[in-house]
């Protein structure tokens, strides 16, 4: 197979030149022969015409003189190619013929053909290799006979074209070779750019360097082809540039997606997905190697209140600072990750002994002793930590996380800012919590809940109100204290249903209380922080009061200081509407939460309640007495009613009376009692010795 187009084109061109040259030579010879033959015919016709004139006198004789005819014919010998001559009478009878020539030229076939020619008009005729010229001999139009000359045509023609070839062929050969050489030169010159273009594209297929361009100044088809190739390379280079940019963008997007998939965008810590995937691998490896691993699960105490009151921007800054603090105090190899919200996890790399875990937890807690400083604010945020080991979870990830979560919530239940190591007893406690949470809806529908009332007493011992306290007579667990099931209801999102039940029950039982006590009083209903986030709470209260025909002046709503401030904007608007409707508002646990005096000028409340922890320590703590006195003084200055709870001793009551406390409640007067026992309460409590004995009984 030919590898280059030059070879077949060269062969084709050389062949064409040779064939053309040969064809020209052949046509030249043929044309020369025609011309020569025509010239000979002309000469022979003239010769026979002259000879016929010369022979006319002899043929007029009755007996022509053959010698005289021979003499006339002998003159033809001077012509080189005349082979012979004949003279015929009018009857085509032969008068004279050169004998030698006659015998050598004519055979029988030619004689017959010759006889037929005599019947033709005067002229020259080609017979084989001879040219025969015939002319009539006549006198004044009277035919006398014929004169015939036989001329050799082939030999002179052959000699003529051989002479022609001998003189012309060298020039033809030179011209042909020169033409071939010029043709091949031009072919090579014209196809050279095509060869270079082929080599260029071949090299391009190996180098893949599409920035190269083919340089040519040719304006023919090859130049156009090169131009189109360069244009194609421009397009390819542009597409490659676009593809490279897109690939780079895809790589960057993939890296971003990897970061988003594995790392928290706010803190830069590994996220839940990343740490869970790694924990699965570590748990499988630890199970094979019979090694234990541990994790510390913690969230931030008080973070939600800061986030809600100061905004998410401050909350995000705190989360970033938390990540930095925890990261800097960990050892190399320890893993810290953000699970979401304010929840974090630490996976120690080495030494998971109990002592090491306790030391690590202590360091984490101590890292939050220093407040966070943002925009001139000093914000204190603590942590509650739960510690769990893989061996206690049978190396199951979900169980390990559940154990750590249980331990962390146990820390919160113990007072926050501490750590707790998981024990299996917590599982049973958790199961009890789950059972309680799942039983709340049934408890409401089955009337398992009941209200107890604890009286509130004025300075003169007169009963001025009650606090409605819910109790749960559970079919399996018996009487459950609200301190246990209320937090569970809040965590499970069912506190709103309980609050609604309490408001409805108080509204239903209020007429019975009014029938027992003629003087005006108020029944206090507790609201949780979760209730304050319920946008339809006011409409619910208004609907229940309208349906049960409740006078709002008999109702007081209590809310803790922390719950109020965690939902400050909504709570302020909500309680202002309740106050306008006629309800009283009490701020419970004052002094145990934020204890910021500035917000007291912005909220709508009627009563400040002193927490039982200050009352309990009145006889033993100067600090508690100082705080109590300050709260009473502050309430008086703000024209608020002051109420103290948890009164168990007369000395406490006397101290509070002395310092101006308006209302009190506690076991000194009565424990919370069911509705049917409320009628047995005195309208006024006396604190003489006999009265004290009456209360104690």
From TrEMBL:
All residue ranges annotated as the GGDEF domain in the record: 291-424
Metal-binding as UniProt keyword: no
Pfam families: EAL, GGDEF, HAMP
Domain HAMP: 188-241
Membrane-crossing segments per the record: 9-29, 164-187
Domain EAL: residue ranges: 433-686
InterPro entries: Cyclic-di-GMP_PDE-like, EAL_dom, EAL_sf, GGDEF_dom, HAMP_dom, Nucleotide_cyclase, Rev_trsase/Diguanyl_cyclase
Assigned keywords, A-Z: Membrane, Transmembrane, Transmembrane helix
Record protein name field: EAL domain-containing protein
Organism in which the protein naturally occurs: Salinimonas profundi
Organism placement in taxonomy: Bacteria, Pseudomonadati, Pseudomonadota, Gammaproteobacteria, Alteromonadales
């Amino acid at each position: 197979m030919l590898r280059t187009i030059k070879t077949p084109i060269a062969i084709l061109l050389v062949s064409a030149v040779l064939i053309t040259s040969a064809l020209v030579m052949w046509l030249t010879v043929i044309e020369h022969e025609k011309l020569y033959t025509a010239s000979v015919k002309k000469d022979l016709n003239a010769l026979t015409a002259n000879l016929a004139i010369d022979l006319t006198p002899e043929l007029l004789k009755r007996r022509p003189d053959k010698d005289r005819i021979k003499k006339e014919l002998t003159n033809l010998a001077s012509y080189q190619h005349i082979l012979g001559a004949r003279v015929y009478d009018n009857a085509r009878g032969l008068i004279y013929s050169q004998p030698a020539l006659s015998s050598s030229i004519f055979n029988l076939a030619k004689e017959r053909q010759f006889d037929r020619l005599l019947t033709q008009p005067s002229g020259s005729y080609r017979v084989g290799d001879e040219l025969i010229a015939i002319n009539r001999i006549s006198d004044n139009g009277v035919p006398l006979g014929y004169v015939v000359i036989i001329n050799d045509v082939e030999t002179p023609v052959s000699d003529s074209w051989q002479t022609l070839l001998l003189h012309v062929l060298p020039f033809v050969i030179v011209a042909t070779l020169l033409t071939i050489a010029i043709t091949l030169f031009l072919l090579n010159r014209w196809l050279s750019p095509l060869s270079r273009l082929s080599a260029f594209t071949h090299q391009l297929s190996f180098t893949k360097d599409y920035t190269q361009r083919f340089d040519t100044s040719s304006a023919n088809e090859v130049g156009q082809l090169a131009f189109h190739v360069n244009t194609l390379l421009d397009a390819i280079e542009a597409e490659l540039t676009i593809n490279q940019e897109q690939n780079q963008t895809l790589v960057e997007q993939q890296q971003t997606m990897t970061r988003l998939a594995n790392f928290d965008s706010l803190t830069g810590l590994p996220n839940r997905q990343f740490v869970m995937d790694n924990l699965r691998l570590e748990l499988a490896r630890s199970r094979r190697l019979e090694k234990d691993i541990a994790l510390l699960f913690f969230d931030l105490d008080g973070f939600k209140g800061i986030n809600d009151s100061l905004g998410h921007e401050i909350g995000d800054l705190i989360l970033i600072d938390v990540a930095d603090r925890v990261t800097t105090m960990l050892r190399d190899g320890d893993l810290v990750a953000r699970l979401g919200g304010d929840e974090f996890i630490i996976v120690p790399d080495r030494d998971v002994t109990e002592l090491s875990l306790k030391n690590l937890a202590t360091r984490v807690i101590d890292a939050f002793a220093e407040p966070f400083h943002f925009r001139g604010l000093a914000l204190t945020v603590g942590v509650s930590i739960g510690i769990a080991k893989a061996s206690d979870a049978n190396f199951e990830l979900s169980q390990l996380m559940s154990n750590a979560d249980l331990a962390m919530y146990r820390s919160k239940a113990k007072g926050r800012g501490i750590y707790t190591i998981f024990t299996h007893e917590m599982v049973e406690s958790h199961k009890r919590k789950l059972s309680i949470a799942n039983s709340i809806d049934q408890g409401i529908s089955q009337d398992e809940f009941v209200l107890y009332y604890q009286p509130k007493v004025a300075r003169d011992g007169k009963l001025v109100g009650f606090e409605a306290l819910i109790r749960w007579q559970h079919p399996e667990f018996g009487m459950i204290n609200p301190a246990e099931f209320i937090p569970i209801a809040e965590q499970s999102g069912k506190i709103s249903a309980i609050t609604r039940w309490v408001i409805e029950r108080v509204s239903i039982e209020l007429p019975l209380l009014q029938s027992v006590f003629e003087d005006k009083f108020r029944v206090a209903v507790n609201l949780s922080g979760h209730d304050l986030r319920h946008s339809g709470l006011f409409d619910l209260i208004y609907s229940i009061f309208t349906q049960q025909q409740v006078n709002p002046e008999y109702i007081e709503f209590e809310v803790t200081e922390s719950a109020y401030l965690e939902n400050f904007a909504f709570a302020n608007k909500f309680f202002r509407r309740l106050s306008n409707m006629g309800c009283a508002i009490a701020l419970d646990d004052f002094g145990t939460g934020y204890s910021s005096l500035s917000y007291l000028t912005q909220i709508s409340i009627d009563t400040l309640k002193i927490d039982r922890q200050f009352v309990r320590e009145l006889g033993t703590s100067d600090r508690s007495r100082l705080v109590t006195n300050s709260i009473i003084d502050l309430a008086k200055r703000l024209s608020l009613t002051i109420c103290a709870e948890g009164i168990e001793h007369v000395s406490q009551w006397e101290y509070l009376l002395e310092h101006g406390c308006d209302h009190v409640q506690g076991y000194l007067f009565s424990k919370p009692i069911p509705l049917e026992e409320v009628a047995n309460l005195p309208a006024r409590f006396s604190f003489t010795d006999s009265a004290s004995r009456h209360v104690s009984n």
